[in-house]
Amino acid sequence: MNDNSPKTALTVGEVAKRSGVAVSTVHFYEARSLIKGWRTEGNQRRYHRSVLRRIAIIRVALLAGVPLATVRDALIDLPHDRVPTKADWARFAKAWRDMLEQRIFNLTQLRDQITSCIGCGCLSLEECPLRNPDDELGRAGPGPRRLGAKP
Ligand code: FES
């Protein structure tokens, strides 16, 4: 018996129940090419059991703030009829961890900058670190930087 046989294939309801997502979410992931199923002769959707692990990976990635398009790009080369391995997961996790580290760094900087702005409210293009991160205007040289700039 192969994994696409009627005995082992999952219905959309079974996929939803076993992966802890709504049926509409299963359809949404399929519409976004994150998972893939097929239709029976009776026109019912069926899924390989590997879809459960794929959905687990998608859920963890989204929880970590990885954009859906990035998740799709990572999963695109993974066969839909093979359960993702520990090595597959390790590869995704490493790439997404690096992305998370950068986001944490950026958010920490933003938090510190917002703290320094509390009570000010100027939102000055020249002075406010929120409007002028890393003093981009200062690095561009002395003198007015916004003259002639497109709004
Ligand atoms: S609001 Fe004034 S420095 Fe940011």
Widest sheet, order of strands: 1-2
Reported for the largest beta sheet, the result is: 2 strands, antiparallel
Structural Rg: 23 Å
- Helix/strand/pairing class, anyone? mainly alpha
Q: How much helical structure, as a percent, in the residues? A: 40-55%
The name of the CATH topology of one domain is: Multidrug-efflux Transporter Regulator, Chain: A, Domain 2
Query: Mind telling me which CATH architecture of one domain this is?
Result: Orthogonal Bundle
Bound small molecules, deduplicated: FE2/S2 (inorganic) cluster
Mean pLDDT: 85
The count of strands amounts to 2
Protein topology:
Blueprint: H1 12-19, H2 23-31, E1 37-39, E2 45-47, H3 51-63, H4 68-75, H5 86-117, H6 136-139
Antiparallel strand pairs: 1-2
Helix pairs in contact: 1-2
The structure holds FE2/S2 (inorganic) cluster (FES).
Explain how this protein is built.
With 151 residues, the chain is mainly α. It has a domain at 1-84: Multidrug-efflux Transporter Regulator, Chain: A, Domain 2, CATH 1.10.1660.10. Helices cover 49% and strands 4% of the residues. The protein contains six helices and two strands, in the order H-H-E-E-H-H-H-H. It has a two-stranded antiparallel sheet with strand order 1-2. A hairpin with a 5-residue loop joins strand 1 and strand 2. It starts with 11 loop residues before the first helix and ends in a 12-residue tail after the last helix. The model has no long low-confidence stretch (mean pLDDT 85). The site of FE2/S2 (inorganic) cluster has 9 residues, from loops. FE2/S2 (inorganic) cluster binds at residues 117, 120-124, 127-128, 130. This is Redox-sensitive transcriptional activator SoxR. Pfam families: MerR, MerR-DNA-bind. InterPro entries: DNA-bd_dom_put_sf (IPR009061), MerR-type_HTH_dom (IPR000551), MerR_fam (IPR047057), Redox-sen_tscrpt-act_SoxR (IPR010211), Tscrpt_reg_MerR_DNA-bd (IPR015358). Keywords: 2Fe-2S, DNA-binding, Iron, Iron-sulfur, Metal-binding, Transcription, Transcription regulation.
